[in-house]
Amino acid sequence: MSGTRKPGQRVTPAATPGGMQLFDRDGSRKYLTVAERARFLRAAEQAPREARTLCMTLAWSGCRLSEAIALTADRVDLAGGVLVFATLKKRQDGIYRAVPVPPSLLEALDLVHGIREAQRRRGRGSAARLWPWSRMTGWRAVHAVMDAAGLSGPAASPKGLRHAFGVAAVSSGIPLNMVQKWLGHAQLSTTAIYADAVGAEEQDIARKMWE
């Protein structure tokens, strides 16, 4: 039978309607595990300051690289504890989402990018991009940290960090509709693919039933 699983064969989850998968054609994982993300963040601590804050933002918010590069000082809500991203994948402009992030990230952004100072100026920092870089410059900065962390393969990328955020959120018991909001997915079915996490993440999800 064509649907029979052979011994040792890895089952690759089906793609979402939009085509997103957590594994490539060779069955390699496209997301970082919790331990790999921790290694990445430790390596980021040794990177230049602007690269470090970019890496932290991608890891802790799950945003797309292009969304991070577009972030301006006025969209860093220090009091509310959130970053406000323009959801660039939506068909129309003016779609924003607020993503809660750790205080350590907000403190780092303020220290490196002068958020409070920028917000006291006219326009509250709406013209002050945190990373006035091209997307390629941001991509290179992230990959330099991936290399320093000893990470390689499909998961060692900005998209791998985004997928890691989704997997970690689902593994922590965050409702799918909340994860959908934070990631800026148009369809819940796209977000639901993170419930197909494997390995240690799947064990963590299953353990909630055993305890």
From TrEMBL:
GO-annotated molecular function: DNA binding
> One Pfam family, short name please?
Phage_integrase
Per the record's keyword annotation, is Acyltransferase included, yes or no?
A: no
Q: Which GO terms describe its biological process?
A: DNA integration; DNA recombination
> Where is the Tyr recombinase domain positioned along the sequence?
27-207
- Which UniProt keyword terms apply here? DNA integration, DNA recombination, DNA-binding
Extract the InterPro entries matched here.
DNA_brk_join_enz, Integrase-like_cat_sf, Integrase_catalytic, Tyrosine_recombinase_XerCD
UniProt xrefs under SUPFAM superfamilies: DNA breaking-rejoining enzymes
Top-level lineage group? Bacteria
Keyword check for rRNA-binding, yes or no: no
Q: Which PANTHER family match?
A: INTEGRASE_RECOMBINASE PROTEIN MJ0367-RELATED, PHAGE INTEGRASE-RELATED
Q: Which family does it belong to?
A: Belongs to the 'phage' integrase family.
Q: What is this protein called?
A: Integrase
Please tell me the species this chain comes from: Komagataeibacter diospyri
Question: Which classification does the entry list for the species?
Answer: Bacteria, Pseudomonadati, Pseudomonadota, Alphaproteobacteria, Acetobacterales
